[in-house]
Specification:
- By secondary structure, the protein is an alpha/beta fold.
- It has two domains: 53 residues, RecR Domain 1 (Helicase, Ruva Protein, domain 3, Orthogonal Bundle), CATH 1.10.8; 148 residues, Dna Topoisomerase Vi A Subunit, Chain: A, domain 2 (3-Layer(aba) Sandwich), CATH 3.40.1360.
- 38% of the residues lie in helices and 15% in strands.
- It is built from eight helices and nine strands.
- The chain has a five-stranded mixed sheet with strand order 6-5-7-8-9. The protein has a two-stranded antiparallel sheet with strand order 1-2. A two-stranded antiparallel ribbon has the order 3-4.
- α5 links the parallel β5 and β6.
- The longest helix is centred in the first third of the chain and has 17 residues.
């Protein structure tokens, strides 16, 4: 007796796609800013393309996870540790600009106006999202300041520039760092408000970022 024909599996989105497609859609919707419709457009683009294109994408994702790590000094993304910026003897290693994300560091570098080092927090303090200082690289920053051997070239840090994005969370993160640095023998400055309030650093033009670096303001001597 023939087995009964399986009925299509229903999902909350309607009739389900074949299982491999559904798995792809599920993983795509885990990405920030990708909803179900966007995931479907990406999935069908991949299905229409050839196998070689899909394999190149899969290899690129695998290579990113296997080849990219964090710099042991500044926590920026890098293929080697220390990263090229921290390893360069041409940089002013006594000057450290603290930013939220690697993309912020890239935006600053593109201005060619800054020749110091960086420290990437890998986020910002956001109590509503359950993100506190312990979830960031704040402890590593303080260790670099307290112990020169943890900074590039063993150089003592003399100035810390706070380069948080001008948002509520960015300002809160800057305030926390100011309090932590208050008792430490470093000069604390902050990027000038050439950056429009509410903007992300990656959206600012090179000229605006250059003005912000040049016009940074003293917070603590």
């Amino acid at each position: 007796m023939p087995s009964p024909r399986k009925q299509p599996v229903e999902s909350r989105h309607g009739p389900a796609y074949p299982a491999p497609v559904e798995r792809l859609l599920t993983e795509l919707t885990r990405l920030p800013g990708i909803g179900r419709r966007s995931a479907e457009r990406i999935a069908f683009h991949l299905l229409r393309g050839d196998a070689e294109s899909a394999n190149r994408l899969a290899k690129a994702v695998t290579d990113v996870k296997s080849a990219i790590g964090h710099c042991a000094v500044c926590s920026n993304l890098t293929e080697s540790s220390p990263c090229p910026v921290c390893a360069s003897e041409k940089r002013d290693r006594s000057l450290v600009l603290v930013v939220e994300q690697p993309r912020d560091q890239i935006a600053i570098e593109q201005t060619a106006m800054y020749r110091g080092l960086y420290h990437v927090l890998l986020g910002r303090i956001s109590p509503l999202d359950g993100i506190g200082p312990e979830h960031l690289t704040v402890a590593d920053l303080l260790a670099r300041i307290d112990d020169p051997t943890k900074n590039a070239g063993g150089v003592r840090i003399e100035e810390v520039i706070l380069g948080m994005n001008p948002t509520v969370e960015g300002d809160g993160t800057a305030l926390y760092l100011m309090q932590e640095l208050q008792s430490r023998p470093v000069r604390v400055t902050r990027l000038a408000r050439g950056l429009p309030s509410g903007w992300s650093m990656e959206l600012a033009s090179k000229a605006v970022l250059a003005d912000a670096i040049e016009g940074r303001q003293k917070i603590k001597e």
